[in-house]
Design a protein that fits this description.
Layout: H1 5-16, H2 18-26, E1 35-39, H3 45-50, E2 56-61, H4 64-79, E3 88-92, E4 102-108, H5 114-121, E5 124-133, H6 153-163, E6 166-175, E7 178-180, H7 183-190, H8 195-204, H9 231-239, E8 243-244, E9 252-254, E10 257-266
Parallel strand pairs: 1-2, 1-4, 2-3, 4-5
Antiparallel strand pairs: 5-10, 6-10, 7-9, 8-9
């Protein structure tokens, strides 16, 4: 059965407090009088965490389904009395069609090419905040947005230095794994991956060395004698990596060690 990636992404964010922790890291670079443009906002989970620290946020994405999800959360939060949700305004369009100017441009795992990045940075009056992967990753748990080429912290830093931009950098190691409600949910999740993707699931759950490589070898026979993908073998190989939690709502958790680079570019 296909998994609902949007729901699972929300569950991972809630369980690990990933976006809440990201928000804490970038709030010192914001001002309550500033407007923010979040380019390629996805589900805008980070925007809801930082809305209390800015004047307003334009959450922009070209995926209509994601924009509908954001609007639904805005409505539900306002109904529940969370007034900061009223600072978030959605816009459904491609980044190349952006018009206007904001105090801050935010790009969280957006993956823009360097030429596109330079153009987007031009919409910021004061600062550009860019959040990227600290090292190359495989994308198994990526947000449910369009697949784009990843930019790592090392590549972004090299680009900014060559362009002469002034910036500050923060690196952080964070958890952004996947919680599960039942063994059946785990099986449904694993059924969505084949071959090398299955290997990457296990690699993402390992501790990493200083070079970002898994500290253990991942050599699992995912195919049977007829060279067909063998889900049972994947389940057996993955089972020992799941953590049993003390939570009744999510009793199982598959760790993911995520390295994050946060750049604040001063205009």
């Amino acid at each position: 059965m296909p998994v609902d990636k949007i729901t699972m992404f929300k569950q991972a964010s809630e369980f690990t407090s990933f976006h809440k922790k990201l928000g804490i890291l970038i709030k010192p670079w914001l001002d309550k009088s500033w407007t923010v443009l979040d380019v390629g906002c996805g589900l805008a989970l980070l925007d809801f965490e930082i809305a209390d620290s800015v004047k307003s946020i334009t959450a922009l994405d070209q995926n209509e389904k994601l924009i509908d999800e954001i609007n639904s959360k805005i409505d539900s939060d306002l109904t529940a009395g969370y007034e900061t949700a009223g600072k978030i305004f959605t816009q459904c369009c491609d980044a190349k069609d952006i018009e206007g100017e904001w105090d801050v441009v935010l790009m969280s795992f957006y993956g823009a090419g360097f030429e596109e990045l330079k153009k987007l940075m031009g919409f910021a009056r004061h600062r550009v905040i860019i959040i990227v992967h600290g090292r190359a990753a495989n994308g198994i748990f990526d947000p449910p947005t369009l697949k784009r080429k990843r930019r790592t912290a090392e590549e972004l830093e090299e680009f900014l230095e060559k362009q002469g931009y002034r910036f500050r950098k923060t690196m952080a190691e964070m958890q952004f794994g996947q919680p599960f409600r039942s063994i059946d949910d785990i099986h449904s999740f694993l059924q969505n991956f084949k071959g090398i993707d299955a290997e990457n699931i296990l690699a993402d759950s390992c501790l990493k060395n200083d070079d970002g490589e898994p500290e253990e070898e991942i050599e699992i026979p995912f195919r049977d004698e007829d060279n067909q993908f063998d889900l049972d073998r994947l389940v057996a190989s993955t089972e020992e990596r799941f953590v049993k939690t003390d939570r009744y709502d999510y009793p199982y958790y598959l760790p993911r060690n995520l390295s994050v680079g946060i750049f604040c570019v001063v205009k």
